[in-house]
Amino acid sequence: MIQLEKELRVCVETMTKDKHERLERMKSRMDADQQLCDALNAIPYYIPTGCVPTDQQLDELDTHITDLEVEQVQHSTSC
């Protein structure tokens, strides 16, 4: 019983750490996304508030930011 409790505590600690890392990653990426969207008059990538984003959502956000950065470079070179 004590071993099970120890394993569960380790599991909870790991999951809590993962949650905080994802939320930090989301926060920094959302800030970058918002700045690019403001500059390009684009719609920001949507991740529902109040939830922890999945790895897939974070990867899609990264792709969205990369696409916006490419668009920004293309826009600045064409002007």
Model description:
This protein is mainly α. It has one domain. The chain is 80% helix and 0% strand. It has two helices and no strands. It has helices at 2-40, 55-78. Helix 1 runs parallel beside helix 2. The radius of gyration is 18 Å and the shape is rod-shaped. The model has no long low-confidence stretch (mean pLDDT 93).
Show the helix and strand layout.
Blueprint: H1 2-40, H2 55-78
Helix pairs in contact: 1-2
How is this structure best summarized?
With 79 residues, the chain is mainly alpha-helical.
Entry keywords:
single chain; 79 residues; mainly alpha
Total beta strand runs: 0
Instruction: Please indicate the count of domains.
Output: 1
**Sheet with the most strands, sense and barrel status:** none
Listing every helix as H and every strand as E from the N terminus to the C terminus, the arrangement reads HH
Question: Into which percent range does the helicity of residues fall?
Answer: over 70%
- The radius of gyration over CA amounts to 18 Å
Uncertain spans, ≥5 residues at pLDDT below 50? none
Overall geometric form: rod-shaped
Mean pLDDT score: 93
Strand content: under 5%
Number of helices: 2
C-alpha end-to-end distance: 68 Å
Q: Structural class, from helix and strand content?
A: mainly alpha
